[in-house]
Automatic annotation (TrEMBL):
SMART domains for this protein: PBPb
Protein name: Nitrate ABC transporter substrate-binding protein
Residues of the signal peptide: 1-20
SUPFAM superfamilies: Periplasmic binding protein-like II (SSF53850)
């Protein structure tokens, strides 16, 4: 009897230790809640969520949708999101204003990608010179004022001779062009371009590939998250890289996902995917693109106080997650 009781006590003790170990292991795998700013045309974050890449890398992801990447970046300021992506312009605007840092580049635009940015104008505008005195759309918080400035300069014009009208999203610019509230606007993305091409009284005047402007895309976050949870940031970046590769390798599945979640036409996703390839990393070209955009923003007064760009780039989590994809050195 004593022997039986002893065995039961031993087994009970082992079971308790086993339960404790299982509980400890479960706790160690607890997912970190991360709010991610996104837009309706970007499939990468949604692929990472749908295919489990975020979960596999320790992230409990919540996607928060915005009209433009710039709006998503601005949401960092009010702590509506933890991480955002965007072009060089909104990223630099963010890091110039507070305790934020660029944690990765998502790639540099090719000439083909630049050509997807189309300039549509009213039919009476036949040449760049006809833009003088006209109302021209730009998305607030984006690089588009810079693009307008460069487009005017290369045609020996001054953008101050036109009126730039700020708007919040492509749909707003589309309506303004349709109603005649603006005379010209830049658009990108197959879905919105198809709508614009169907408008009466407008035509394509040019595209961004005919300018020197090439967009860099990057990812930004707050320094609190980067410093206190570098493993979380590394896991996020690894998941995004995996999703970027997966979406390119499985275009039909990606198109189905975008239609299911956002009702984006499958044909639009299939057209856009090969022209907008994300490659998570950081190169000298990414730094040079940011430096060029920063110079414009400082010179034009958009950034009121200059800063050391290198101090606003935090790559340790990226080096941890994807060491081979960081070739830039300070």
């Amino acid at each position: 009897m004593l022997l039986l009781l002893s065995l039961l006590l031993i087994l009970s003790g082992c079971s308790s230790k086993g339960d404790a170990a299982a509980s400890s292991d479960s706790a160690s795998k607890e997912l970190y809640k991360l709010k991610i700013a996104d837009t309706g045309t970007n499939p990468v974050f949604r692929t990472a969520l749908a295919k489990g890449f975020f979960k596999d890398n320790g992230i409990d992801a919540e996607i928060v949708n915005f009209g433009t990447p710039a709006e998503g970046v601005n949401a960092l300021f009010i702590k509506q999101v933890d991480v955002a992506y965007g072009a060089d312009f909104p990223l630099l605007n963010a890091v110039s204003k507070g305790d934020y840092a660029i944690i990765a580049s998502a790639g540099q635009a090719t000439d083909e990608a630049a050509a997807q940015w189309k300039l549509y104008v009213r039919d009476e505008i036949k040449t760049p010179e006809d833009l003088k005195g006209k109302k021209l759309s730009f998305m607030r918080g984006t690089f588009l004022p810079y693009l307008w400035d460069e487009y005017f300069k290369q045609n020996n014009l001054d953008v101050k001779d036109a009126e730039l009208v700020g708007q919040g999203a492509f749909d707003e610019a589309y309506i303004a062009l349709k109603q005649g509230s603006v005379d010209g606007a830049w658009f990108t993305g197959s879905a919105i371009l198809e709508k614009v091409q169907g408008l009466q009284g407008v035509h394509e005047l040019s595209d961004m590939s005919k300018t020197k402007v090439r967009l860099g895309t990057g990812i930004v976050s707050g320094n609190d998250l980067i410093k206190s949870h570098p493993d979380v940031v590394a896991g996020f970046l690894k998941a995004v890289s995996q999703a970027a590769e997966y979406s390119q390798a499985h275009p039909d599945e990606t198109a189905d996902l975008m239609y299911k979640e956002l009702k984006q036409p499958k044909e639009a996703t299939l057209k856009d995917l090969p022209k907008n390839v994300w490659k998570v990393g950081f190169t000298q070209a990414a730094y040079d693109s940011l430096a060029s955009q920063k110079k414009y923003m400082v010179d034009s007064g958009i950034i009121e106080k200059d800063f050391d760009l290198a101090d606003k780039i935090s790559l340790d989590p990226l080096r941890q997650a994807l060491p081979d994809q960081v070739t830039y050195t300070k």
